[in-house]
Design goal:
Layout lengths: L9 H62 L31 E8 L10 E10 L9 E10 L2 E11 L3 E3 L4 H7 L3 H8 L8
Antiparallel strand pairs: 1-2, 2-3, 3-4, 4-5
């Protein structure tokens, strides 16, 4: 009595295939949902980045506009009444120009005109601020050296002056290191600032 039991796995295989396909469909749906969420996040990041860039650009434009407004010369002149003197006035007694505005004048020394050996050195400049266009003496002055390295420009402030006092400045360690300078080099340049006569 040998009985053979034949098991038909075709239905089991079909059930397993259906179950496997169900898992694949669920995994595909989850993957699609994840991709959709990633694309939405990426879209939001791009929008927020563009908004941030626009805000930065507007801020820079506003800062430039404000900086220019601060340096705009406001001329206030009143029309004087014309009176003809009975006798001719000497030239030395003539009234000065009534326009009052701050004036800044600069003196510069190019690198070829200064015996300073630094490959990055470009120019030594002193700026002088006068209270009005008629002033004979400046009120405040400053001196700085310009350097160029790797396509960038660096400015190292060397000294500030008033009519009575000089305020030398020592360069920071990062400036010295970046521009291959020493404090002796800074002193050398500061001693050669092209100040105007006071």
């Amino acid at each position: 009595m040998n009985e053979q039991v034949i098991v038909d796995f075709s239905r089991v295989d079909a059930a397993l295939d259906l179950t496997h396909r169900g898992y694949e469909v669920a995994a595909d749906r989850a993957r699609v949902a994840l991709e959709k969420e990633r694309s939405e996040i990426t879209t939001r990041m791009i929008k927020y980045g563009a908004a941030a860039c626009a805000l930065i650009i507007v801020s820079i434009g506003l800062a430039i506009w404000l900086a220019r407004q601060r340096h705009v010369t406001h001329v206030q002149a009143s029309a004087p009444a014309i009176q003809f003197p009975s006798t001719a006035m000497p030239i030395s007694a003539a009234t000065p120009n009534k326009i009052r505005t701050k004036i800044t004048l600069f003196n510069s020394i190019a690198k070829d005109d200064l015996a300073f050996r630094n490959v990055h050195f470009y120019r030594l400049t002193a700026g002088h601020e006068y209270s009005t266009s008629n002033a004979d003496h400046w009120e405040f002055a400053w001196c700085y050296a310009d350097f160029r390295k790797d396509g960038l420009e660096y400015t190292v402030t060397l000294a500030n002056r008033t009519a009575k006092e000089l305020f030398p400045r020592s360069a920071s360690q990062s400036e010295l290191r970046e521009l291959a300078l020493s404090q002796t080099d800074v002193s050398f340049l500061a001693n050669r600032c092209p100040w105007r006569e006071q």
